[in-house]
């Protein structure tokens, strides 16, 4: 079973709003019965997230205020692809450095998802990072919401319990910890089956 690319005919398209990083698009799409309907959705550059796990099986998490939902959420390091075609591994390494001043020796693709395909074209790649250590050089200068961000490490099993209990809501964190748990449940072969860090990503093509 796999998802299959497909594009229904669009008769018109406009962009009624353009923001700093994303925009809103309205397409007129032809349905299978021949009718034409409007579909509004957010146009997104794509993003990456990092499930960074240390030698004590703790996950590096950050606590950040998210204004649209009026919550401070526990999350894993994540960020946007800054430019079209940006290498997602390098973007993930940048986010891990900027948000936690940490580097990792071993990187794998954990999973690829569309975060909200009914209303946004955002594609998200979540990496598994292991072999953690302190990054060299000065810490990245944070601002805005990140100036109030807390960084800590939490046992993976505790995060799984929090997701299933409805206490943790960030999609990157939830998908990441549950995907890793599922991979481990398959035994050593489960982790070995994870794709290499530079695996192709059709949703956001890039050059290695």
Write the layout of secondary structure elements.
Layout: E1 10-18, E2 23-30, E3 36-43, E4 47-52, E5 58-66, E6 71-75, E7 78-80, H1 88-100, E8 102-114, E9 123-134, E10 150-155, H2 156-164, H3 171-185, H4 188-192, E11 195-196
Parallel strand pairs: 4-9
Antiparallel strand pairs: 1-2, 2-3, 4-7, 5-6, 5-10, 8-9, 8-11
Structural write-up:
Keywords: Hydrolase. InterPro entries: NUDIX_hydrolase-like_dom_sf, NUDIX_hydrolase_dom. This is NUDIX domain-containing protein. It comes from Streptomyces taklimakanensis. One of its GO terms (molecular function) is hydrolase activity. With about 210 residues, the chain is an alpha+beta fold. It folds into 2 domains: about 10-45, no CATH class; about 45-195, Alpha-Beta Complex (Nucleoside Triphosphate Pyrophosphohydrolase). About 20% of the residues lie in helices and about 40% in strands. The protein is built from 4 helices and 11 strands, in the order βββββββαβββαααβ. The chain has helices at about 90-100, 155-165, 170-185, 190, and strands at about 10-20, 25-30, 35-45, 45-50, 60-65, 70-75, 80, 100-115, 125-135, 150-155, 195. The strands form 3 sheets. A 5-stranded mixed β-sheet has the order 7-4-9-8-11, sandwiched between helices. Strands 1-2-3 form a 3-stranded antiparallel β-sheet, with no helix packed on it. β5 and β6 (about 70-75) form a beta hairpin. α2 (about 155-165) packs across α3. The radius of gyration is 19 Å and the shape is globular. It starts with 9 loop residues before the first strand and ends in a 12-residue tail after the last strand. About 25% of the residues are buried.
